Amino acid sequence: MSDSLRDSRCDIGFIGAGVMGKNLILNLADNGYRVCAFDLDQGRLNALLEQDAKERGDQPARVETCNSYTELLAKVKAPHLIILSVPAGAPVDDVCNKLLDAGLKADDIVVDTGNSLWTDSVERAKRYEGKLIFFTTAVSGGEVGARFGPSLMPSGDRYAWSRIEPVWHAIAAKVDPASGQPLERFEPGNPVTEGEPCAAYIGPIGSGHYVKMVHNGIEYADMQMICEAYHVMRSALDMSPADIAAVFREWNKGPLNSYLISISAEVLATVDAETEQPLVDVILDRAGQKGTGLWTAVSSLEVGCPAPSIAEAVYARSLSTRKVLRTRAAKKLQGPAVEPIEPAKRAEAIAELHDALYCAKICVYAQGFDLMKLAAREQGWELNFAEIARIWRAGCIIRAVFLQSISDAYERDVKLSNLLLDDFFAEQIAEHQGNWRRAVADATLKGIPVPALSSALSYYDAFRMESLPANLLQGQRDFFGAHTFSRVDRPEQQKYHVQWSEPGRPVVEI
């Protein structure tokens, strides 16, 4: 192969030019990488080339396309770096196998950026060992994040990371190191090059997708709690969507500042062009989900880590899909008689909701980080929680000013056992819990469901209790199933059983 031909080859091969793939490709191109793209849908490739031409103007083409896996490998420099943006599951294996058939070598890297289940990634790394280097990078930020700077959670082979690191640092979202605020620029061809990149090596294969899974579980709970605050304002405070949008915009100036609060305000302020009604009123209240929140809830049960608010957010979405049944129930089931709130007390109620959302948010993150900590211990991963919080400060869906405080907490104590035990967060909840309790109680008395806000409160109260009623529960288990129990006045490893059917019910050591 001639030097001129070798020099003309692309830096990166990219498979999958859907919404996320196309935007990641253009992001790579903005940052100086020549990309060769392949997709089974020629229409997607045409759209990619058209978008590249539109954005680059009279500058040389930055993106090429090809018609086969063999052509892709021929057009990309060796050793190959191939990035996948394809649906999770069987399509990932299908692409890997076709690349091997096309001539992929053992030192070529394949990076899965889809929403794969973390255990699948672990199995793939084993399956392809010695054939290719299978690496993963979980991506958060949606299509805008992919285009102008996502949050990236890479995991896998350390050698592969050394080759991928400069690429991911270039295209990731950036944060001002002094203020912790995102450095955002939504201009094609003019990427943000300064600041701290929101991309950091997470650990061994699977750990990055696990962290992204928990990110999505937190996202589920955060969204649900915002929706619950909206519901209370709408139903109990008789506020219009525009009024609530104004409240959210005000909240976004303080400790609740976040992407999700910001977009919630935008949704509520939007008017449907066809009906001239608030857009939120013409959206069917049936929520969808892609499974990552469910995976998080299931993992919390498997690991034995309580994450009730994440689970309640998943249940809330499931209950929303029972629209027909709920419509029937609304006509038959009675709730409490609700008197309209006095306008003079509205501001007080809004302040209570603000503090409830803030305190519950702390508890949700405590649940998520605790889950990552226990999973890491089980898997032998060494996760850097301060760094994880830092790379979530920009680019991702749960980006928020709040994450700087979480990063600071883990910087103060790298062995912090639970976020609630950090002095700053303990003080924040102590200061604001009165309003949190009043908001949950008022919503309950008015018959407005707040499952995420209330479960977070129950989590906090259970966590701070030195003694829980599990002693009675263990007594119950021993009574019907002889499951035994430990005593408070003996070493815990010693087990006891009551001979319940014997006179005097003697306690015997097992």
Automatic annotation (TrEMBL):
Residues 208-501 form the 6-phosphogluconate dehydrogenase C-terminal domain. Pathway: Carbohydrate degradation; pentose phosphate pathway; D-ribulose 5-phosphate from D-glucose 6-phosphate (oxidative stage): step 3/3. It comes from the Bacteria. Keywords: Gluconate utilization, NADP, Oxidoreductase, Pentose shunt. The keyword Oxidoreductase applies. The active site is at K212 (proton acceptor), E219 (proton donor). Substrate binds at N115, S140, G141, G142, H215, N216, Y220, K290, R317, R477, H483. It catalyses: 6-phospho-D-gluconate + NADP(+) = D-ribulose 5-phosphate + CO2 + NADPH. The keyword Mitochondrion does not apply. GO terms for biological process: D-gluconate metabolic process; pentose-phosphate shunt. It is an enzyme of class 1 (oxidoreductase). PROSITE patterns: 6PGD. Its EC number is 1.1.1.44. GO terms for molecular function: NADP binding; phosphogluconate dehydrogenase (decarboxylating) activity. Homodimer. Belongs to the 6-phosphogluconate dehydrogenase family. Catalyzes the oxidative decarboxylation of 6-phosphogluconate to ribulose 5-phosphate and CO(2), with concomitant reduction of NADP to NADPH. This is 6-phosphogluconate dehydrogenase, decarboxylating. It comes from Microbulbifer marinus.
